[in-house]
Amino acid sequence: MSSTATPVAHSAPEPASAGTESAPGTTTSGTAVAAVPGTDVPAPGAGPGTAAPAATGAAGAAPAGRRGATDYADYRLVPARHPWRWVGTAVVGLGVAGIAWSLATNPRWEWGVVAQWFTAQSIVNGLLETLKLTAISGALGFILGFVLALMRLSASPLLVSVSWTFSWIFRSTPLLVQMLLWYNLGYLYEKISLGIPFTDVRFFEAQTTTLISQFAAAVLGLTLNQAAYSAEIIRGGILSVDQGQLEAAAALGIPAWRRSTRIVLPQAMRAILPTAFNEVIGLVKGTSIVYVLAYSELFYTVQVIYNRTQQVLPLLLVATLWYVVITSVLSVFQYYIERHYSKGAVRTVPLTPLQKARKFLATHAPATRETAQERGTR
Amino acid sequence: MTTSVRPATGAREALETTRGLVEITKVRKSFGSTEVLKGITLSVEPGGVAVIVGPSGSGKSTLLRTINHLEKVDAGFIAIDGTVVGYEVRGQRLHELREKEILKQRTEIGMVFQNFNLFPHLTALENVTEAPVVAPRAGKPRLSKAEARERGLELLDRVGLKDRAGAYPRQLSGGQQQRVAIAQALALDPKILLFDEPTSALDPELVNEVLDVIRGLAKSGTTLIIVTHEMGFARDVADTVVFMDQGQIVEQGTPQEIFTSPREERTRSFFSKVIEPAFNI
């Protein structure tokens, strides 16, 4: 009996619920009427004497603040102010403006020369060579790195030690030395042949110097070096995936290769991608090291030109600007690729910059602001 | 000590009875110097429902994981419908099977994990359709993508989640995720389903939606082996309750025998701790 009476006594001193919240009010009153014929029954409530008059008084014109606590629900929200943020913004803005001004007005930057060379045929050719080297050695490096990472994670002690040794050698020797070593391989070994060791069987044989051109030496050096680093990046990514995932896949009978490529790798990608893009961006600029082989990529081309024209800084600026362009494009790729692999990992996929801009415009449009104000003054 | 779990009702006996006989014989397993399973012998009839209960660390989960060869046994063997799991009998020796053969055997044994272990980068439907398309199956062809999709939707419907087919696991509640995991295990049409504490990672209010799905499966003729701490559910659904402690089966019997009149003192003291007094009324 008391359990049915308590909600009635509780709702009675709440004036708003009687009038506005009709749905729960009617259901409780329906049962209350059945259980409580008169109004004098709810004795177990806290204030039996006051509860009944308060309820009848509420039906008249009781203000909301009668219970002591003010109702703030309709007040307008005012965001906190951050004056120091504005000061900081002003200081940084001033600094940036100063740098921009000096760049624009200092004649020694020789922007005219930069513009003249920026799209010159020889520079564009050099740029294409740089892109070619990056693409080929990046792709080969990561493929080899993936294989090395799988070897390192395999159960076979031989594969583990081969992979470890590879990474150890190529990470502990300077890239410059590796590069020169590959290019001068002909000095160490005149001929390169493929056959069965310690017999006279040869399937293939060639002069080393004809086999290893500048391009081949450059790709070889960059690829092997890149593979050593990316193996570790990919291994780290694979290790970051929960062991339960492999177990679940194995329990479902999914074959080993499919477990790696479909289950583990896509999840590992989230850990791999940021570092991998670091590597690729590093590689773009790292290709400039092949100037030691007199290979005419972007940086070597620029050097050749300024040795002739003596316009050193403007031409270095030309190369720099191109590296900035490539890196910027790669960063955009990175953003979208990371976004692709974030599906499932976050509840909602982050917005693209375009979507963000649209949303900003939509929420800050004058029309919606008015409705917000209306709500505030209502 | 071998007691068989028999299908309790007549309806179950009408179903084909050669599918899903599990025989565990003298199984031992150690991790380092700790012996987790000390000679387990247990037999579950086709279509039977065995519920394994016992304190943490008693070897329940390990026993379950030996059944689909996720853990190799050190001694003893497990047979499903007379075929040894993970090994091939040649003369007087058990030769370890190659990966592909083990995978084939596993497609006959579905497993549902405590932490769901759904693939977070795949949608609910993709989770369910992945294995039937790629897993090598014993005596059955792989499904085409379209077939798998149709079957996947059917299974998601069966666990009440057809409308969430496109959702990623992280967008689902724990109970929903576990129901997807059950659909995933069912997609290979297994003879046997293993449940490793399927409700232990769930909020109390979500437990029942998962248990209801498992209750439905108990009547389907699939052999179920369930490790759980839900005693009310165990009493409800089990043909046989197996009480394990310290790597051994202490006793087994019908729910009535084990819960209301256990023979062993160890069983009695365990239940006096885990079952709320109200339950025994």
TrEMBL record, chain A:
SUPFAM superfamilies: MetI-like. It holds the Pfam family BPD_transp_1. Coiled coil: none annotated. Residues 16-65 have a biased composition (Low complexity). InterPro entries: AA_ABC_transptr_permease_3TM, ArtM/GltK/GlnP/TcyL/YhdX-like, MetI-like, MetI-like_sf. Keywords: Amino-acid transport, Cell membrane, Membrane, Transmembrane, Transmembrane helix, Transport. Its main location: membrane. One of its GO terms (molecular function) is transmembrane transporter activity. It is a multi-pass membrane protein. CDD domains: TM_PBP2. Residues 1-65 are annotated as: Disordered. GO terms for cellular component: ATP-binding cassette (ABC) transporter complex. Residues 127-334 form the ABC transmembrane type-1 domain. It comes from the Bacteria. It is found in: Cell membrane. One of its GO terms (biological process) is amino acid transport. The chain crosses the membrane at residues 84-103, 135-155, 161-183, 288-306, 312-337. Belongs to the binding-protein-dependent transport system permease family. This is Amino acid ABC transporter membrane protein (PAAT family).
TrEMBL record, chain B:
Pfam families: ABC_tran. It is found in: Cell membrane. PROSITE patterns: ABC_TRANSPORTER_1, ABC_TRANSPORTER_2. It catalyses: a polar amino acid(out) + ATP + H2O = a polar amino acid(in) + ADP + phosphate + H(+). Keywords: Amino-acid transport, ATP-binding, Cell membrane, Membrane, Nucleotide-binding, Transport. GO terms for molecular function: ATP binding; ATP hydrolysis activity; ATPase-coupled polar amino acid-transporter activity. It is a peripheral membrane protein. It comes from the Bacteria. Residues 22-271 form the ABC transporter domain. GO terms for cellular component: plasma membrane. Its EC number is 7.4.2.1. The keyword Cell membrane applies. Belongs to the ABC transporter superfamily. This is ABC-type polar-amino-acid transporter. The lineage of its organism: Bacteria, Bacillati, Actinomycetota, Actinomycetes, Micrococcales.
